[in-house]
């Protein structure tokens, strides 16, 4: 047996080997010496081995195309794994060594990044340029580096975001797609596919990366792999093959999934790619392979006995629903007993917005998502009245959850179902099936793995079985939170299943201190060997921060997941918020608002804790309670926001646990998503009933909010204005005036008057369409991190494009049209800009209204005059009138029907990939803006008689209002009744003549007849009653007593 050599001697032999055979032998010795030995790895890093390994990998053959996949036939088949030439064996050993060093954990990320290992590794993932063994080893190295990055400390610059940025570029995305499309059944290829799916699920968190992968065909490749599992399970309907032959889909039915391919990883990758996007979810459902193996077929035509049984169950009340919308796979599920339709009336948030709800980056519902989104009433959550039948993928996923034996597969199937449910691709009747067949399964998994979790809480390193159990426990609350976020009924089922108390317990358990938060360094008799030089040029030979142990990382992920589930459960029902508070979790929630949490302490014990000192720290500087990343901070903000919807919580537990100041600190966080989340919480903490309003004002919240109201980010600007609206409501006049002065009257006028986002988009487009200079062309050619710079803006469905021109059928053409419509709606920049402008203008008008909302009459009149003097009386009325007119943006530009606005507020676009247009557009008055204008006038009319007379003098404005008595929005009709009642109010005998003049003007404009029409014919009882009161006031009934303003008060 050869004696082990010292690192310097062996390194010299590797570098000076006479041929590849010698180098292979020496590299094998190095490999045998470092695998599993962290101390040996540290020594080799100190001697600069990583830089030499990267140098070996950079010596690639020259007879290959420089980029892309071109000349596929010139290279070895993807399944070839034997008889590697010596130069490839050298590179294989170098990749294996780098993967071994990456397995050492976060310690080795700093030197690996210093030698730029990731870009070199990525050059070996193309399956058409490299042997399968090299591709597999490079993917293993990337996976190991991803795992190490997930354990890196908060001071480390190596994280998953840097890896995602390096991996998700066009040429490497093509390589990932080629790996997933490979038809070989070899074990090496299946492991490659599993590693690719794992990388996607762990790194692809940003919407831009998800869109890039979907457009490149990765999502379709994953859907094909999912379809192969349907084939392997024998669940393809045999009597549909003739139909598939006629439609040209029989050729896309994949082979059965080979052994070694993980269904759980495929489902997890799919769930990550389709998250919070109806377009990407539609791509999954319209994938040719999914449509081929899971067809919508009425089983009643083939099996009359089952059909008659279904009809008998329906007549007996055990089944409710339309058989024509059910596929054959529904018969794999048990009949769900339904006796009433109460569950169809689930209070989804688009129809029942919660008090204090603001637009934010969500998550997107736990999604936390990086995009500014707006409420969309045209996409009903949980199903809609569409002509297209529900996809058979939905019952198949439910069946998989019930019949599968792999718990990881069950959780990931539920995750895909959550996206389908939230995207509106399910029938309304399916909600009850989810409550009976899906939610209880998730709750049982949560209970089981919570009990099993206690067996390995003291482990520094974990085995694969424990790691899988931890993954299931981390994912299940988050999946359940997404599934129930918009459904009161599903939230009730989840709470009845015991998940509420369990989520609270998991949150408190996540703050159990970790005895060893960071992995210990191996003992060495010569500690002086670890002395760092402190020079940047030696970073390639130095270890980085130690990171954290897997248990600590697991607790932090559990913290985030449990906070998401608590947020979903507290969204609507007050009784759920009360039950959550009773679990004594507010100290844990409060600590989750800090990046460096301490031991959660009840309010009564906090003074004693402060006297005893701060939390003890690990010698390496790690807190035993971990470090909260931005995802935990955002989840905690969402939890506080939903709990703050309760006035009782605002006045008691939230104030006692001092959440105001941590939230205020997060307003100044460097991350824009954290700022937006904190700003959404401030909206609820600044209401009239909140005892935290005064401390926040003293801390300077007014200045911060006014600064953010000028932000370039539409979401931050909206939430800041929303918070200011709450702050000025029912507060003293000095505070109201200070808010207006800080915000600036000119800027406020610009917010409510101009279409800021739309004009900014127009300026951006015009700038992009300027003639390119030579420097611009060079910059475009050098860009390699996205598809935005592509010269061809026309989107092509890769699933059809890759099959060739002969792949066509009626179903595929229909699917292509549906996908184009979904894509146009989701990526329409003009529509997004318009919705942002409308939301900001609405809050700006409400802010002005709340400035004059003062109960005391003299003070209110004074404030109205102050507003007129600061903003300009005539200018303000002109702006209000403009909100009630049809508006044409850029009237002298060309007009196209697809780019014109609609009376419902939509804005179409062309068929381009970016969906932007500079055409002239017609913008119709929006109901929310109309209501805001009317209530502002209502508050002015609640002032002194001269203010009411001032409103009456605006003849053009009143004529515009008269045209909205037939508005389909009930709030518009109701608010008009309030306004007219205030306008004819009489402030005593001295105001009778003025009242008679106002009544005369209103009758002349036809308001009395319109009110009588509402009183007789309106479908809403409340509107009829309000119209009756207003008509009676106009007709001359006595109006004595104190004046009370009629209008809405927003909290």
Summed up, what is this model?
With 1051 residues, this protein is an all-alpha fold. Helix content is 57%, strand content 1%. Helix 19 (393-403) packs antiparallel against helix 20 and helix 47 packs parallel to helix 50 (970-983).
Key words describing this protein structure:
1051 residues; mainly alpha; two-stranded antiparallel sheet; 53 helices; globular; disordered C terminus; repeat; ARMC8/Vid28; Armadillo
SSE map:
Layout lengths: L6 H9 L4 H15 L3 H9 L2 H9 L28 H17 L6 H6 L2 H6 L9 H19 L9 H8 L2 H12 L5 H17 L3 H9 L2 H15 L8 H7 L15 H11 L4 H8 L2 H6 L10 H12 L77 H11 L3 H16 L7 H8 L1 H15 L10 H21 L3 H9 L2 H11 L40 H20 L4 H9 L3 H6 L14 H7 L17 H14 L3 H5 L1 H4 L3 H7 L5 H14 L7 H7 L1 H8 L5 H14 L5 H11 L1 H9 L2 H13 L5 H9 L15 H4 L8 H17 L2 H23 L5 H15 L1 H10 L4 E3 L31 E3 L3 H15 L3 H8 L2 H8 L7 H14 L8 H13 L2 H11 L3 H15 L16
Antiparallel strand pairs: 1-2
Helix pairs in contact: 1-2, 2-5, 4-5, 5-8, 8-11, 10-13, 11-15, 13-15, 15-20, 16-43, 19-20, 20-23, 21-24, 22-23, 23-26, 25-26, 26-30, 30-34, 33-34, 34-37, 36-37, 36-38, 37-44, 39-44, 40-44, 44-47, 45-46, 47-50, 48-51, 50-53, 52-53
Structure, explained:
- Residues 516-525 have a biased composition (Pro residues).
- Residues 527-538, 602-611 have a biased composition (Basic and acidic residues).
- Residues 513-540, 588-622 are annotated as: Disordered.
- It is a single chain.
- The protein has 1051 residues and is mostly helical.
- It has 53 helices and 2 strands.
- Helix 10 (170-181) runs parallel beside helix 13 (218-232).
- The relative contact order is 0.05.
- The model is unreliable at 62-81, 339-386, 531-537, 608-616, 768-792, 895-917 and 1038-1051 (pLDDT under 50).
